[in-house]
Amino acid sequence: MLRFLTAGESHGPSLTAILEGMPAGLPLAPGDLQGDMRRRQKGYGSGGRMGIEKDRVLITGGVMGGRTTGGPLALHVENRDWASWRDRDIAPMTIPRPGHADLTGAIKYGYRDLRLALERASARETAARVAVGAVCRRMLAEFKMVVGSYVVSIGDVAAALQTLVGESAPQAYLARFQAAEASEVRCPDAEVAEHMHQAIFEAMQAKDTLGGVFEVIALGVPPGLGSHVHWDRRLDARLMWAVGSVQAVKGVEIGPAFENARLHGTQVHDEIFVEGAEGAATLTRRTNRAGGFEGGITTGQPIVIRGAMKPISTTLTPLRSVDLLSGEPAATQYERSDFCAVPRAAVVGEAMVAFVLADALIERLGGDSMAEMRLRFDALRQGRLDELTMDGEDWRFGYE
Ligand code: EPS
């Protein structure tokens, strides 16, 4: 339904994204995208590059008179660093850095200089993804859906942030997002944030890097998005793919999935209760260990998805490698990079989640225009008892 492509190199002139499948009639101004572009650039542990870039999105297609047309959106982000590369002779790069796409890229594409792999594999590309995600977020906002994030751990410093449930959960999550926004490591727990800051500082002093875990939460998502009927329609799996595609993310879980795997079934599953008077009785849960999904379909509870990011592969301390020019053992050479990018990766994770949810919503509602979608959104089944009429009679499969 909804798809996007990006193009561009880290130190080339610009990044471009094409977003296809957005319904017509969504109010959209370049200013709507700026907040997310700025958020992606913030975070303690960044290298020098973020002082150079001032990411701004130029919309050059798909929006006329302040509204989407239904045509593909073209989004354009300039690389300010291009100015210092355009007239430069590029030094040869022949020692692959472990953890990067340097070696695998050269094996696959037959590159004769490793920079060709670096330039496109770079997480600079996430600026384009965040531009796309910001458009999707704008669309989701029309249906009162909110996507936010925070950092759960950096290195071995972890915040104890429980999954929130019940009617107060959305407000409490919003408060977490707000607290994370004020933190330079994007952690809502101020005390833990200080320890995270210290851990990053120490890693920098030690000429090393750090990874961590971020959590993306989606609020206000109606039940019934996604499907159990086929592997590629399971929305939890689509979200895992999308978050797992973010550079340096090597693990993704829905809710506390790895913790659940250590427990008994009776401790894990979110029991179902009925609340409210007859005629308006609603099915409710008192826990959300499923992270918002059953059978690959949204339950209507907050969606909870975590991404585990490996430590940045470019380390000031050299790692052992091989010079492909001489075939001799060689130490890696340092290229300017980030020391810890987990706070920024959380914002990229949000963008990917917003994209997948926008896609799922369009799929559920059928979406040529926002006006059509609104009508159908209001008619969605919400999980009230009176919407779930059962036959209560024996029946047969009837296969011959
Ligand atoms: C990156 C290396 C750094 C990061 C870059 C991702 O860039 P440079 O090599 O120019 O110092 O700053 O991220 C961005 C530029 C960005 O906008 O996020 C890498 O090797 O992936």
Structural class: alpha+beta
Spatial order of the strands forming the largest sheet: 8-7-9-15-10
* Distinct ligands, ions and cofactors found in the model: ligand EPS
Mean pLDDT: 97
Low-confidence stretches: none
**Distance between termini?**
36 Å
Share in helix: 25-40%
Strand content: 15-25%
Order of helices and strands: EEHHEEEEHHHEEHHEHEHHEEEEEEEHH
Shape: globular
How many extended strands?
17
In this structure, how is the largest beta sheet organized?
A: 5 strands, antiparallel
Tally the helices: 12
What would the keywords be for this entry?
400 residues; alpha+beta; 5-stranded antiparallel beta sheet; 32% helix; 19% strand; globular; binds ligand EPS
How would you describe this protein?
The chain has 400 residues and is α+β, with helices and mostly antiparallel strands. The protein is 32% helix and 19% strand. It is built from twelve helices and 17 strands. It has helices at 31-41, 49-52, 102-109, 115-121, 126-141, 169-181, 190-205, 235-244, 257-260, 265-268, 342-365, 370-378; strands at 3-7, 14-20, 57-61, 63-64, 67-68, 73-78, 146-154, 157-158, 212-219, 249-254, 272-275, 282-285, 293-294, 297-298, 303-309, 320-322, 329-331. Strands 8-7-9-15-10 form a five-stranded antiparallel beta sheet. It has a four-stranded antiparallel beta sheet with strand order 1-2-6-3, with helices on one face. A hairpin with a 2-residue loop joins β4 (63-64) and β5 (67-68). α1 (31-41) packs antiparallel against α11 (342-365) and α8 runs antiparallel to α11. It is globular. The two termini are 36 Å apart. The model has no long low-confidence stretch (mean pLDDT 97). Bound molecules: ligand EPS.
